[in-house]
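retry 2 of 3: previous attempt timed out while embedding NAP. Reduced batch size to 1 and resubmitted. Inputs unchanged:
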Amino acid sequence: MRKMTATIVSGGDAFGTHRALAPKGALPQPADRLDNDFSRLFAGEMLVSVETLNVDAASFRQMEEAGGDVGARVLATVAERGKQHNRVTGSGGMLLGRVVQLADGRPAGEKIAVGDRVASLISLSLTPLRIEEVRAIRPASAQLDVVGEAVLFASSPYAKMPDDFPDRVALAALDVAGAAPQVARLVKPNSVVVILGGGGKSGVLCAAEARRTGGPGATVIAVESHEPYAREAEALGVCSAVISADARDPVATRNAVLAKTGGREADLVLSCVNVDGAELSAILCARDRGVVYFFAMSTSFTRAALGAEGVGKDVDLMIGNGYAHGHAEHTLDLLRSNAKLRALFEKRYG
Ligand code: NAP
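retry 2 succeeded.
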């Protein structure tokens, strides 16, 4: 689609504030609207020809439930905001594309060249984007094939696409690459770990990582409402139990979990659902001074904070950071190390 090389202009900064149109000078994530005029690039920018968007699961589900065509909704959002930043969920996703141009001022020592294929490891909610056309929508993986362009800033993490995974599989895994490394940091041998939405994409990665880090003595419980995903999580062989239940029902979820742990509350609870309203279940399953890790973008800070106070739970509430050092390689290595997990990803997202 691109016929001309973009002109390089001065005035850019590493964080992308130069692309914020409203309000001017804001960081691009909280900005309402971004400049997606790519006829010129600012110093430090990488121009990418976009092939696929992996929309955040909470955002994709919200658009489906709102009715109409998801592709049309994405086109409208990008036309209005210059980025795929869902106004309801506040979340974005990430993209796969090919490097078209690199402006001067990129980080020193960077090993990237025009023509390389990359996945962005920052949210679409802060990535300047233009879309000409939506070519295909794959609801099972929340991916859209598009014709478009995007800009990554000098501060934007990205991964070169691995050559030992199909693109769609790698993209699916990289979308939730922040999850498993945090589990590896938080789980101890013999921990009790509960994963809400444990049959979903990030959920099965967390379950596999909890077993890998926690060892055979760990108790890993998945709670999943989508029956086929519950059965697939069970077949992975990493969970001590998979409970088919609605994680928006706190007391029922707690009772079902305690029935599987012999009454022991969890050291770590991960919320990996794609819906809102699961905060209290996560909190009620955790032990005194345990950790509740909210990976789900559908989490409400207010519901979590006031909910924990309301039930007198002294637990550490952690926000799921999408970034951890080495998270892309960590997650791809987890898939490489577990043949069943990799096969599940290839079946679902390939
Ligand atoms: P996913 O593959 O859609 O998995 C979510 C799972 O939760 C699905 O299996 C879903 O079932 C299940 N679920 C939905 N409602 C439930 C309920 N009431 N009780 C129990 N299970 C329920 O999503 P994902 O890609 O793993 O993403 C999970 C969450 O992480 C999303 O909220 C997403 O926005 C967020 N996320 C966070 C980051 C970050 O950096 N923190 C990055 C990427 C994604 P169905 O199949 O029926 O929907």
